[in-house]
Amino acid sequence: MGKDLTKINTTFEFCDGGSCRKAKSELAVREARAYLRNEQLWDTTHSIRTRCNGRCEDAPTWIVQPGNYWYKNVTPEKAEEIVHSHTQNGTPLPEYLLFQKGDEAVRSDNEKTIAPIVFKEKNDVDFGQALVARASASDQYLYPVFKKLFTTFFPFTIDHKHQLIHIENHHKVSYADAFDVDIIGTNLELKLAIGPITKAIEKEVDADVLERKVGVAEVIWTKENSTFVGAIRLKNRKGKHLITFLIPKDNTALWEYILSVYLGMDIANPRIVLN
Fold first, then answer.
1. Hey, where are the domains in the chain?
2. Tens place of pLDDT per residue across the chain (275 aa)
3. Contact by Cβ (8 Å): 266, 272
4. What is the CATH number of domain 119-273?
5. Fewer CB within 10 Å, N- or C-terminus of the chain?
6. Residues in Cβ contact with 82 at an 8 Å cutoff, skipping those fewer than 6 apart
């Protein structure tokens, strides 16, 4: 039987992602849970190991609810203090906080900035003189793009295995596998691996999955092309071409979606670096 959630006053979310584990997050978790047991707080609190919280530079991190309090660099010594303050006093410990509601900035000691995606001039092997942007190949970006492409923004054209396939109707997009996304419709059955494959598990993954694993994603702006305004080109980790989505000039809604949602650009002022 699970916990009686009607009795829970405080929830501790312990990040259990790779960076936090490397920073010995489990040691802090053990101290926190020992305190909760010994102080007879187990039935009125809940603690859970989460997957990555997205703040690897501040590992180990915790989130405490209610209040959405984020903690950084949680050591075993800090753990008991944090738990005590929230369970006994109902207040956070500001000196250990990474973020709380109302903050205008994250209080990181090791903030990392991500360079924005930009288009750069390039003489491309497939498209000639064009603007090329290196985009994200993460499933967090590609799966939403696939769903929009095949359920909302057709028509467009696919270049797959040197064949052009025209997509003019709805296709089913399923991402139920650990790695593969399946796209199935009247004239297409496509399987691409987009799930994360770390070095730790790479040797356990089938060779054919690694062959179709998307490792490189590029958006090409073919301004001089008379048929297509742009394209999304996907390659595997070894640089082998997997598939290219060709966006027709008259499908402005799809192209604007790619610029704004996939690349995070202002449609009216996209980021372009000229030679």
1. 5-99, 119-273
2. 688 999 999 999 999 988 999 999 999 999 999 999 999 999 999 999 998 999 999 999 999 999 999 999 999 999 999 999 999 999 999 999 999 999 999 999 998 888 899 999 999 999 999 999 999 999 999 999 999 999 998 899 999 988 999 999 999 999 999 999 999 998 889 999 999 998 878 999 999 999 999 999 999 999 778 899 999 999 999 999 999 999 999 999 999 999 999 999 999 999 999 87
3. no
4. 3.40.1570
5. N
6. 32, 62, 64, 71, 74, 92, 93, 96
- How many CB atoms are located within 10 Å of the residue 149 CB? 22
Report residue 28 as tokens. 């802090």
CATH topology of domain 5-99: Glutaredoxin (3.40.30)
Query: Are the C-beta atoms of residues 25 and 33 closer than 8 Å to each other?
Result: no
The CA distance from 245 to 216, in Å, is 14
Residue by residue, what is the 3-state secondary structure of the chain? Answer: CCCCHHHCCEEEEEECCHHHHHCCHHHHHHHHHHHHHHCCCHHHEEEEEECCCCCHHHCCCEEEECCCEEECCCCHHHHHHHHHHHHHHCCCCHHHEEECCCCCCCCCCCCCCCCCCCEEEEEECCCEEEEEEEECCCHHHHHHHHHHHHHCCCCEEEEECCEEEEECCCCEEECCCCCEEEEEECCEEEEEECCCCCHHHHCCCCHHHHHCEEEEEEEEECCCCCCEEEEEEEEECCCCEEEEEEEECCCHHHHHHHHHHHCCCCCCCCCEECC
> What is the spatial distance between Cα 14 and Cα 26, in angstroms, rounded to a whole number?
9
pTM of the model: 0.81
Q: How many CB atoms lie within 10 A of CB 46?
A: 18
